[in-house]
Amino acid sequence: AQSVAQPEDQVNVAEGNPLTVKCTYSVSGNPYLFWYVQYPNRGLQFLLKYITGDNLVKGSYGFEAEFNKSQTSFHLKKPSALVSDSALYFCAVRGAGGNKLTFGGGTRVLVKP
Amino acid sequence: DAGVIQSPRHEVTEMGQEVTLRCKPISGHDYLFWYRQTMMRGLELLIYFNNNVPIDDSGMPEDRFSAKMPNASFSTLKIQPSEPRDSAVYFCASSLASGSYEQYFGPGTRLTVT
Fold first, then answer.
1. Which of B4, B42, B103 is closest, CB to CB, to A101?
2. End-to-end CA separation in angstroms for chain B
3. Which stretches of chain A drop beneath a pLDDT of 70?
4. What pLDDT does B100 receive?
5. Chain A: nearest CA to B108, how far in angstroms?
6. Do A99 and B97 touch (CB under 8 A)?
7. B2-24 core/surface letters (b: 16 or more CB in 10 A; e: else)
8. Using a CB-CB distance cutoff of 8 angstroms, which residues of chain B are in contact with residue A46?
9. Quick one: pLDDT band at residue B32, thresholds 50, 70, 90?
10. Are B50 and B7 in contact (CB under 8 A)?
11. What is the largest CA-CA distance in chain A?
């Protein structure tokens, strides 16, 4: 069975400071990893993905994520957070041979001015 | 493309009534997923379809829930009879069968059962 853990329910950061949202996963075979963002009263929006290749993946709105196979992690990062980045962030994993995404519990990010 | 379309956006109904949620996936997508989101349980996959055929319905909570996909451009999630504990936001998502498989979500239907 595949699983995703987001150990922090909430992350608080000051505007302009770097932002990191943590994610670890468990899956059989090579993972397909995704980050989504959800703004209030909206659906989930795709941010970025790792399938293969370079371990550092760049996505929308200045976000990037680093795949670390040995630590089974896929942490989301942004060098300089904006107040508008305040939202709920979900990490998801898809194992080889299946089409289901397993989502983590979500991490709420609050960026203070 | 207009993205995944869901209707209604909000539904308020009384316990015992039938509720039907609707979804139009992105044109050309082969997979369609129904999720439920609550504060207590987070985001749960209820059922998903491939080429209009249900593949995995293990997440459907009980027999009161049913889902259909009569064609490639339309799916319904029905709850009959509805109960207050069904109150949640229900999302539909779609994806391609090949490539990187990212799912694209609709805006959701907020269901309140009183």
1. B103
2. 36
3. 96-98
4. 67
5. 6
6. yes
7. eebebeeeebebeeeeebebbbb
8. 102-104
9. very high
10. no
11. 44
What residues contact residue A106 under an 8 Å CB cut-off, 6+ apart? A6, A38, A88, A89, A90, B42, B43
Cis amide prior to B81 (ω within 30 degrees): yes
Q: What is the pLDDT of residue B13?
A: 97
Q: How far apart are CA A49 and CA A33, in angstroms?
A: 5
Average pLDDT, chain B: 93
* Burial track B92-105 (b if 16+ CB lie within 10 A, e otherwise): bbbbbeeeebbbbb
Give per-residue pLDDT as tens, B52-103.
999 999 999 889 999 999 999 999 999 999 999 999 999 999 998 776 678 9
Helix (H) or strand (E) holding B70: strand B65-71
Given pLDDT bands bounded at 50, 70 and 90, which one contains residue B2? confident
pLDDT band at B113 (very low <50, low <70, confident <90, very high): very high
Distance CA A55, CA A71 (A): 13
Distance between CA atoms of residues B51 and A12, nearest Å: 42
Residue B15 identity = M
CA distance B64 to B43: 19
**A18 and A78 in contact (C-beta within 8 Å)?**
yes
CA distance A71 to B90: 33
Kindly list the residues from chain A whose CB atom is less than 8 angstroms away from the CB atom of residue B100.
32, 49, 51
Query: What's residue A89's pLDDT?
Result: 98
